[in-house]
Amino acid sequence: MTRRLTSLTLDTLADLPHPCRDCAFWELDRQAGPDACAAADPGLEKEAWISQTLLEWGSCGQLAYVDEVPVGYAIYAPPGYLPRARDFPTAPASPDAVLLTTVFVRSRYAGSGLGRRLVQGAAQDLARRGVRAVEVFGDARRTAAGGCIAPAGFFVAVGFKTVRPHPRYPRLRLELRSALAWQAEVEYGLAELLGTAGQAIAGRSPASVARSARTSIEPVDTSASAG
């Protein structure tokens, strides 16, 4: 079984699992009026949003594959690119943070670590681009993946801290400076994810693997930026 991550771009948009591929929950402004949302084509809105975000800001997501079949995703962008973020009771997101809208892995692969790997891939991409932190609006009532908002408990489990509590939609934050402290773990995980660890790293520490990874492991493809 081979697993890999790659950036979400227009070229990989067709691999974005449904229903996210045809969902524009985050991309449409509800305040513009219900008629405007009802008349919109979600698939076209999603494609237009990804195109604009890539052009103006850069990579805005990660896709996870198992044996070349897309099985999960993570979507992220600055809050200004996500009109629906204004509607949450714990809004607004901090101005120094990128907003991670959701992380999803198909139920067949639940518990396999792919959700954590998607967060790690997003963190690695954003840290390289000088982003200070990632924030999310979690759903405190949801315990399983699905829908447009991931369970708050999942984000807590992968290292996010609550910065504004709420009984349903808490806002959580991951400091990427702190995340860099576990960069060795991230790179070790990516090496394993890309299938390059094998017996060559048996018995070696994550820190040791991280040092060699910089020269021997091809990083996750997060270079899909218009610039």
How would you sum up this structure, described in words?
This protein is of the alpha+beta class and 227 residues long. The chain has one domain: Gcn5-related N-acetyltransferase (GNAT) (Aminopeptidase, 3-Layer(aba) Sandwich), CATH 3.40.630. The chain is 30% helix and 19% strand. It has seven helices and seven strands; from the N terminus they run βααβββαβαββααα. The chain has helices spanning 34-39, 42-56, 114-128, 152-157, 176-179, 183-193, 206-216, and strands at 3-7, 61-66, 69-77, 97-105, 133-137, 161-164, 171-175. It has a seven-stranded mixed beta sheet with strand order 1-2-3-4-5-7-6. Strand 6 and strand 7 form a beta hairpin. The protein is globular, with a radius of gyration of 17 Å. The two termini are 34 Å apart. The model is unreliable at 197-202 and 209-227 (pLDDT under 50).
Approximate shape: globular
Number of strands: 7
Percentage of residues in strands: 15-25%
Q: Tell me the CATH architecture.
A: 3-Layer(aba) Sandwich
Oligomer: single chain
Strand order of the largest sheet: 1-2-3-4-5-7-6
Low-confidence residue ranges: 197-202, 209-227
Q: What would you report as the Rg, rounded to the nearest angstrom? A: 17 Å
Output the helix-strand order. EHHEEEHEHEEHHH
CATH fold naming: Aminopeptidase
Structural class: alpha+beta
